[in-house]
Design brief:
Elements: H1 2-11, H2 17-43, H3 47-82, H4 84-92, H5 97-125, H6 127-136, H7 150-171, H8 173-177, H9 180-186, H10 196-217, H11 222-239
Length: 240
């Protein structure tokens, strides 16, 4: 089963490009935040610093994680709809709903694991610059040192799988409820490229992310630093 899932992912990785990108970004962000909290805890600069790090992790990580869940779910719904003919054909030739569900959920988990691993590595690399920025803007006191955090890496990678699996289960429910004969007869394979309007909207959102970063980057202080981090994370996830 695993070999079949891996082979299927290799042949249709382009369909999961959106899930891969969002998994990469959300895993990188959550790895970075969890690693910051772990670094503060290991440095033990005081309860105030740890509470500040926990607030940052809860505020930015919680909001961005929720946004990532919605984006992954939306992308997986589109992927499942594009595969209605394939799903209907498999059911006609004897595949059960449980087998098809397990296959698609397995694909989503593998893609999320790939994106999460890459994002976790990126988040670990970004720990040093992030700590310097947080300390320089007064969010954290001096003391925390940048070092690889296994806990932070695990949080980032596993969070993507935790998001992708229930999202895939929800996305495949619709195509499985459709009659196999109806799906084969009526559904058409969609071969659409990214709409121009959506591409322009993504570019505009990226420009907004850069503007938010530049605005808050010119200021100093804990309040402005947290606002800047929040604005950047949300606009980047929306652009994805």
């Amino acid at each position: 089963m695993l070999a079949l899932v891996l082979a299927s992912v290799r042949t249709r990785l382009w369909q999961y490009a959106g899930v891969l990108l969002v998994s990469f970004m959300s895993a990188g962000l959550l790895t970075l935040l969890a690693s910051v909290l772990d670094s503060v805890h290991r440095a033990d600069p005081g309860h105030g610093a740890e509470r500040a790090a926990q607030s940052l992790l809860g505020l930015v990580g919680g909001t961005s994680g929720f946004a990532a869940m919605l984006l992954v779910a939306n992308t997986l719904v589109l992927v499942a709809q594009q595969r209605r003919v394939e799903i209907g054909t498999l059911r006609v030739v004897g595949a059960t709903a449980s087998q098809i569900r397990a296959h698609i959920v397995g694909e989503a988990a593998v893609v999320a694991l790939l994106g999460g691993t890459a994002g976790g590595a990126a988040g670990s690399v970004a720990l040093g610059p992030a700590l310097r920025w947080l300390i320089g803007n007064g969010v954290l006191p001096a003391g925390p040192q940048a070092a690889f955090s296994p806990l932070g890496f695990a949080v980032g990678v596993l969070s993507t799988v935790v998001i992708a699996v229930p999202a895939a289960l929800a996305a495949v429910r619709g195509p499985l409820r459709t009659s196999p004969i109806e799906a084969v007869r009526d559904a058409a394979v969609e071969r659409r490229t990214l709409p121009v309007g959506r591409a322009l909207a993504a570019l505009a959102t990226l420009a907004l992310a850069w503007a938010a970063w530049d605005r808050y980057g010119r200021k100093s202080g804990a309040h402005e630093a947290v606002n800047g981090a929040m604005a950047l994370c949300l606009t980047l996830l929306i652009a994805a």
